[in-house]
User: What shape does this take?
Amino acid sequence: MDIYVDQKASRSGTGTRENPFQTISRAAQIARAGDRVLVAPGVYREYVDPKNGGISDDLRIQYISQEKGAAVITGAEQIKSWIPYEKDVWMVKIPNGIFGDYNPYTTLVEGDWYIPFKPAHTGEVYLNGRAMYEAQTLQEVLEPAVFLPSWDPEFSLYKWYTEQEEGRTILYANFHGADPNAENVEINVRRNCFYPSETGKSFITLSGFTVCMAATQWAPPTAYQEGMIGPHWSRGWIIEDCDISNSKCSGISLGKYRQKGNDNKWLHKKYKDGTQTERECICQAQAEGWSRETIGSHIIRRCNIHDCGQTGIVGHLGGVFSLIEDNHIHHINNRQNLAGAEIGGIKMHAAIDVVYRRNHIHHCTRGIWLDWQAQGTRVTQNLFHHNTLPNLKPGQENVDPQVLQGIGEDLFVEVSHGPTLIDNNIMLSERSVKLACQGVALVHNLIAGSFTAVGIGTDNGSKTLSSPRYTPYHMPHRTEVAGFMTFLHGDARFYNNIFIQQPVHPALKAMEAHSAGNEWDDGNITVGTFPYNGYPTFEEWDKEFDGYCGMGSEPSDRYYMHLPVWSEGNVYCNGAKPWEKENAPLQATGRVSLELEESGGAYRLKTNLYEELSKIKLSVPFISTELLGMAFEPEQRFESPDGSAILFDRDYFGGHRGVFPVPGPFAGHESADQILWETT
Assistant: This one.
């Protein structure tokens, strides 16, 4: 059955084409498996709480914007009753009844791993679609100062402040000469936009909507994880062709339900650290029904996700076996008004068998962060750039230390045993991959930034005592926990990548020097596989077990030494440095230029790379699952989610590689001239 919605309809609508419902919420109360909810263009200021889900992929409930992007679901209300206060500052008094049982202007952002360097409410004030900056005092609104860490420091002068008075929320805002009653000024009112309040509403499609401006709460892995949109612990959602922006914290959540007795337990009860409560969350979820048959297997595709405070996509446990493809994810956490360990374009824990492919991720404080249990995870054919320190100007020597707090990288894999496969990506930020993990394979990537945190970042930060982080690994392609283990580091494979050292900004050099001895980030800015110097080859590691017969044998460090590294077929340019034991590393002799050009939304590489490669005698291996072997701890191959082997015979564009491949993400030099991404 088709159910029709049009916000211009009369309130007595019946959901037919001739007499549509006025709100999406009305339709969401009656829609059943197999139904389509067809929504006309308009602004729908409502929280949609789907009452039902579908029952299979063929019998799902579909919510479809009849014109792509023209049906807007927003958590905000427009305010046209501002009165002048002083200077360029205006004031409005909002009756608290409009907020119901959740007032974003009395609710502070909080949760495990959140750093409250400044108190922040879940509310926002928007001027013509742009979120302004919350101030701590009214005086800061009257006399605003630039917030240096912001990626748009000039707009950080647009400040707002809130206080309570006799059942009303008072807002003060500095509009710098604009008349807020003539401009489009909105405030957060609702917590979510399209998000079931109950779990288990599976097989729902949300297609073609604009979704924006909600007062979402911080979403750590040890708490109820919400977003403006999300399946809330269910199975088989499709979120496609949507424009998603301006969530206070997260745009889309594929995250965890609220667990009884373990919801921000670290923050509220203190005695067990967050790592231990996270382990408990995982085991509790498994006992309460977390499995491939009940949770996950979602698809997020062709969405434009931007300008959210914490993440574009967040998730823990609930996103397993999902596909995230062809999305444009950008400008996440750019205001730097929120701080903590859960920030990125995508931040997912336990991304078991999740595939991230053909996404364009840029201008985020971190691109993708895969934390814990990136087992069977594949990151392939993505374009990454400008995911660190965008405000720095060429030749700028002195940088305020505040600005450096936003430094990240294209991809961070943390405390995971793998197997994590990273192939055919273009990674152009100053720092490409943070590798506080083991069980990874990087194959046929173009890497123009450094590796950081190799061999560190897996302990828990105790001052004097040992604090290793034991994290779980799972039965292959399942959710059941197979074991827990800390990290030996290594178990890494690097095949047929191209490493290009780019000019380094002085601020990054200063940060590298400042990071010496830091157990979380070494600040490395030199490109190449050399951070694995000192790690054994497989033959060296295997020799430790020669003649070993168990108890009673001569003691050695065989069970606690670094795991082996494999590296072959890589090309190093402009002084990028290979691992000391690499088998015949290939060195470019001439200077390689590399620039990403954008024109009319189309991105291309401008480079002489293939001219320089033509001067090298290339002899590189053909890569397959068979060659990569198994990740050590889970004893699982680098393979597809369905368990099938991978032949790396397809490039960044999906083009065919021949029997004798060239290094990097392109099958040949002609491919490097094609458009890498086009914003439509």
